[in-house]
Each structure stands twice: as C-alpha cells, then as structure tokens.
Amino acid sequence: MFDRRKLLGLALGAALILPQAAKAGDLLDELDKDHSGSLSLDEVKTAAAKIFDGLDKDHGGSLDRKELGKRISDADFKAADPDGSGNLSKAEFVALAEKLFHAADAGHDGQLSHDDLKTPAGKALSELLED
Ligand SMILES: [Ca+2]
Ligand SMILES: [Ca+2]
Ligand SMILES: [Ca+2]
Any idea which architecture 26-128 has in CATH? Predict the structure, then answer.
C-alpha cells in the first residue's frame, strides 16, 4: 500500500524543484556563483573560460566557426578575430565575453542584472555562454 503522506511529500518536493528547473535557462542564476543577484565581470570571464574548454574538443586551444555554431553571430565572430585566423583563441573568446559584458551593463555599475541581460548585448552574451 502507498503511504499517502509520503506521496504528498514527493508531490510537494517536485513542486519545489520544478520552478528552479524551469529557471535554469537563465544565465544569471546559472553563473551567479556568489548569489549576489547579478553577474560580475569575474563570474562572466570564469564562465567563458569554462565554456571555451568544453567546446574545444580537440584541445587545440582555439575554436573555429563551426565549433562555435549558433553561439555567435558572423559579425561578432569577425570582430572577435582581429588576427583573421578564422579561429578564436581562448583570449579572443574571453575578450568577446568581456566586450559583451560591458555593452550590456547599463548604468555601468560593473554588474549584469536580469534587465541588463535582456539587452541585445546581454542576449548575445547569454547565447555565447549557454550550457
Ligand atoms: Ca554575482
Ligand atoms: Ca584568431
Ligand atoms: Ca548593470
């Protein structure tokens, strides 16, 4: 026989977990390691370095256009590749994340809020750093 209380507990547990899972797509909640409610440049750069390592499957130290896929627009790719090598080095990739960070940081308080992430640059940054 089922223990009704246990079932109720499970249902409540699921109800508590689900909203969190639904929010997991938000870059801010994902990367806000110090739970300040906003993203610092450090948090964004750390995340960018991690994403780069994850994407760089052959550990060649660079990402080509294909490896980056839809994370990045053609215009941003070109701008992020000043040496025109057709690849982004880790430094170029992190620099792009930093550039988008500053472009998205309305009010220039050095922190990205939920609203900052809704700007075009904020959206581009979200796509770049998506898991
Ligand atoms: Ca934070
Ligand atoms: Ca390059
Ligand atoms: Ca801001």
Answer: Orthogonal Bundle (1.10)
Q: Cα–chain-centroid distance for residue 35?
A: 15
Cα dist from 42 to 36, 82, 97, whole Å: 13, 23, 11
pLDDT digits (tens, 9 = 90+) for 34-84: 999 999 999 999 999 999 999 998 888 999 999 999 999 999 999 999 999
Kind plus residue range of the DSSP H or E element containing 68:
helix 65-68
Q: What is the pLDDT of residues 23-35, one digit of tens each?
A: 445 789 999 999 9
**In angstroms, what CA-CA distances link 119 with 100, 105, 106, 114?**
10, 9, 9, 9
Q: How far is the CA of 12 from the centre of ligand 1 (A)?
A: 29
Nearest ligand, CA 88 = 2
Query: Could you tell me the residue ranges of all domains in the chain?
Result: 26-128
**CB-proximal residues (5 Å) to ion ligand 2:** 81, 83, 85, 87
User: Where do we find the tokens 């806000």?
Assistant: 32
